[in-house]
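User: Structure with flavin mononucleotide, tokens only please.
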Amino acid sequence: MHILIAFGTTEGQTARIAERIAARLAEAGHTTSLADLEREQPDPCDFDSVVVGASVHLGKYQGEVTRWVARHVATLNAMPSWFYGVSLSEAGGLTADGHAAAQAIIDGFLETSGWHPVGSTSLAGALMYREYNWLKRRMLKAIVAKAGGDTDTSRDYEYTDWFAVDRFAGEIGRVQALARLSER
Ligand SMILES: Cc1cc2nc3c(=O)[nH]c(=O)nc-3n(C[C@H](O)[C@H](O)[C@H](O)COP(=O)(O)O)c2cc1C
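Assistant:
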């Protein structure tokens, strides 16, 4: 099974998660291709299934992801597909009810696009203070401080639950294995 993992990433965490999913699927015997949608525009028809990832910035996912999904929504709905959304809300770093806020962004995106993936998940991202320019650093620190989160800008904070990423990859791998069996 050839699985495409297509993603949008602004500071790199969604790409790191895509690489982890690809590694887990490769261990399970699948062929994987990674595509940063800012740089390449793969055709989902060339794959057996597709995983899409995007991260939230100011309440929205990357435009290259929403445009790519809109362009290919009919194909995606006709094949096994999955979505993961990455955010700081999921880590509880922005609001008290972070998971609900992150899930609402996923639900809104899927509803607006008309995409019905087999599964979707909300994953916590990272605060890469040391990578941000001064404007982003100040902005994020101010927002995070209001929520009582981590504000030491001399370091980065990674909140991603890698076990949750592995569980998500495991779920994808199991559906693929069943599909492979049913083809025999
Ligand atoms: C400028 C900026 C705005 C952000 N806005 C939000 C937001 O509105 N909601 C949220 O939950 N997380 C927000 N985040 C956190 C990102 O989703 C998080 O850092 C994530 O790990 C970024 O993934 P990426 O490195 O793949 O771009 C923001 C981060 C930055 C730098």
